[in-house]
Amino acid sequence: MQRKKLLIIGGGNLCLQVLQILVPRNQFEFHVASRNLEQATRMCNLLRLAALQQNVQARIDCWEMDLTERSIDSNAQTLSRIKPDIILNCASLQSWRIITQLPKTTFEALDEAQLGPWLPMHLAPAYALMRAVVQAGLKVPAGPKTHSGATTLVVNAAYPDAVNAVLYKVGMAPTVGVGNIANLVPATRSAIARLAGCEPVRVQVKLIGQHFFSHCVPRRGLPAQANFHLSYWIDGRDCTDFYTCGDIFAGVAQHFRRLGGVDGQYLTAMSAVSVLENLFAETEVDVHAPGPDGLPGGYPVKVGMGRVLLGLPYGVRRDVAIQLNEAGQRQDGIQAIQADGTVRFGREQMNVMEKLLGFFMPEMKVQDAAGFAHELGRKYQAFADHIRHQGDNHVTQQSIFNRHAS
């Protein structure tokens, strides 16, 4: 069977971690695209040489791609040359983890804005990519019925809970996302197993929840206002409600706390691998993923045979699952995604951005994402430079807010 062509866009840490897992297995024809071709070439050479340590001869082709408005034509030409079966988009103008590098007090203050207000950083490159995909004539599935005829499946790792939902409104939704809800599943299985006194592999779960939920639980347990649905089985027997969700998710935070930041991306990389390796499997495989078919938030899904389908637990309707994730989306700072793709942001979360960064964006059209991303990046850099200059020793959360309160 001929190997599928996998194109990974964005030569950063997540790309590296995914390839570190996949290249030694040598199941794909690998392609890597980055705006920094020299760095991508060095990274791919490292991966080839490392694979050869295990006597695996892997082929990885490198390409230059810059996901901006001015590069859409050239990106479309590159995509036409590669003709990938799968695209994994890892590109973002500013990774979510950047603010975790701030001093603790500063990070905690800025983290109150949640991820929603940072949407332009993730949406702008994804929008440019999907426009190039369309221009290249690569079919992108818009719904379950069209998957079987798709030439290219697009997997998005850049805030897929919201980015995929926005792009769906303008007819350019990626096939599915990775990470977020999927990253919470292993710890949830482990916490249930601990309560049941069994091994985690005997536990299977189906978990519905938006990024806000999957971000909050590992750090603080079950939030006061939690929008999610959890079903679970032990040895194939439905045991849902045997244990309280408070106990389960408290166990996640207390007993299965893990490294975050750059190191924590290993969990996202493994989530990506579980999707990528099974997209064209001969039988469907149960996984979890955000943004399937442009839906908001995360869901249990079935991947295989070139398609992605919802795998909701029995008794949970599709519209109810979407409503749960839309409620989580509001907690994440996105009030609504309108029919034309215009995003309205939550006032509470955007107030944090205004007070700290001097950045305020009540709503955003898809085509304006790049401009807002440029403004946000500039203002964040000025804020971070100021914090580093004055140091965190005498900085309190209140003083940080007071800086822009006037």
Structure description:
- It is a single chain.
- The chain has 406 residues and is an alpha/beta fold.
- Helices cover 45% and strands 17% of the residues.
- The protein is built from 14 helices and 15 strands.
- The protein has helices spanning 13-22, 37-53, 72-82, 104-111, 119-135, 160-169, 181-196, 211-220, 245-255, 261-276, 318-331, 347-357, 369-390, 397-405, and strands at 4-9, 28-34, 60-64, 86-89, 153-156, 176-177, 203-209, 228-234, 237-238, 285-290, 298-304, 307-310, 334-337, 343-345, 363-364.
- The strands form 4 sheets. Strands 3-2-1-4-5-6 form a 6-stranded parallel β-sheet, sandwiched between helices. It has a 3-stranded antiparallel β-sheet with strand order 7-8-9.
- A hairpin with a 7-residue loop joins strand 10 (285-290) and strand 11.
- The longest helix has 22 residues, at 369-390.
- It starts with a strand and ends with a helix.
Quickly describe the structure.
The chain has 406 residues and is α/β, with parallel strands linked by helices. The protein is built from 14 helices and 15 strands. A six-stranded parallel sheet has the order 3-2-1-4-5-6, with helices on both faces. A three-stranded antiparallel sheet has the order 7-8-9. Strands 10-11-12 form a three-stranded antiparallel sheet.
Provide the succession of SSEs. Answer: EHEHEHEHHEHEHEHEEHHEEEHEEHEHH
Q: Report the principal-axis shape.
A: globular
Radius of gyration: 21 Å
Report the total helices: 14
Largest sheet: spatial strand order: 3-2-1-4-5-6
Tell me what portion of residues adopts beta-strand conformation.
Answer: 15-25%
Mean pLDDT: 92
Q: Which residues form runs of ≥5 with pLDDT under 50?
A: 143-149, 392-406
